[in-house]
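Re-run with default settings, no changes from the original entry. Doing this only to confirm the output is reproducible before filing.
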Amino acid sequence: MYQKDFYVLKDSGTYSNVLEAIGLSQVIGKITKNQECVKIRDILTHFQVIVDDAITEDMVNNTNYFDGFTFVKFKEDTLVPDGVSFIDYKKEKSINENQKKKEKEIYQQILKTNDRRQKKLLFKEIEEYMPKKRGDWDILSNINKLKVSTSYEKLFNNVFKNKTIESKNVFPTFLRAILTLYSLLDDNTFEAKKVLKQGGGKFDEVKSLQMLNPHQVKGVNKEKATGISMGAEDVLWIREYLKIIGCFKVMFVRPIQVSSKTWDTKIYVLSPKEIDYIRLSLLQNSFKPSLRGVTSLKMDISSILLFCKTFIENIEEYKTERPFLKSYKPHHYVSGFSTAYLKKLGTSESVSNISFLQLPDFIEVKNRSDGDDWIIILEEHRKIFSRDAVKEAGQGLYILQSYRSFISSGSIDKFLDSLSSYSEFLIQEISKEHYYVYPFSQTLLEKFFKLTEDYYMKTLNKPLNPIFQNEGFKNIAKAIRNSTISLQYIPKKSRDYEVKYGMAQDLKRKSAYRDELVEYIMEFTAFYNAENARIKERKGDNAKTRSNIKQQDIEEFVSLVDEYDSNLIGKLLCAYGYALDRKEKVDENDIELIEANEEHTEEV
């Protein structure tokens, strides 16, 4: 047990063992009195918790009692142990409800005014309204909702009430039991129980808690089930104690809207790959308060994008503007998010889905400039895909599913599918004058493919950036832009040219076949150039018109199709043709107000 490596067996296939490893990391940090030296590493079959120097018997014996987690008074008649600092659940609930009430009152004022400046002031008032709810309120409220509060109290008292027996300090015995339990790669439960008995304490056993163990649903845990009973599985209470510690460090819980009156619950847990305990906690605390979303797909997307953005912002060299000594990939430090979806079943909730969201491995930051670019790109993607404009139904559902698959897997096919489908959706919305639905930035798309050039070289065996430097590709994309998205921001009375609807659908469909794509582009070229000629004829030779697509442009484009692949080039052309830089779009202030409007609608 006196060593520097400890092991948490991955025996659940869920976030249960992540919570256990995080709880163990905190306890070891307390023993060594140096939380910063504790590291967590995923070694496939186990989570390995590592310290710089081996833990000694003196360290354990000299460790004074500490609360693993804060006692919570969930009910009026709950007895708070003497001398224990605690959280008054009823009081915190009142603060939360008052904040929501205040936000709703201010939001009603926002809806009644058309003054942009007044709206901004009102939104600022919401942000600054005090007192704020606790950062761990989502955990506390779900402990109460999922009926974990009784076990929570038992686990706290198992340590607190047995820290001294007959004036003898036996708290170190509890610590030795923990170190013994995780000292081997194999299950060491029997030896850990023997160590606990040496202290002579009396401990309450607890059942498996669904919130902490989504794989252990009530009644179906028997090795050879002959029926289903209501009982949960018996577990060693020390493991549940550590999981409670862990849930306050790496878990966040969000309500998921199913209908206007029905809400399910989704639990997310950060899963470490190789990272310091302190750094993991810092990242969780930094990104969690900014998380928005009320549907499952959008929460998944927002979680990944926002975490990667937060990771970059917290790189030490990036924060201090020092030269980078190495490159950084979020995926090298955190694997992703383990999740559990809890379906509402009358008055209770039950796990209906367990999944894992992998962080993208194509994001790499080599210097401050890369960090700046990635932050802007990730924020643009988050605003486009996590906002209310794209609904989780019909075409919107396909767009979101394709994008989530891309951001979690890195598949360029999925990315291009989501971009081309979004182009179809975008043109439909802008035609309805929904200018709050805005296109991808042309510049940021180029930056994205430049930053990921090395990554996609491994799968495509060819660089993507020459495509964007190809004059034929650029000129045809510009012509598509001039015939579609750019025109829609011009009032109908002032348009000289006809908006060409349906191009996104056509490009997506024709891209599957080389000859059909080339033929379609040639037909579009003929239409585009003829339209230019008509305008010039009507307005005179000195009239300013769009530049024609030249024969050389066609030839260069065809050479790209032959060199790469029609599916890749066609969908890239669609994405690039429907991208538009911010300066050409709707006023930025309007966008900010719309985004704030949606975020506070979700909260209220």
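The longest helix spans residues 514-539. The first strand starts at residue 5 and ends at 9.
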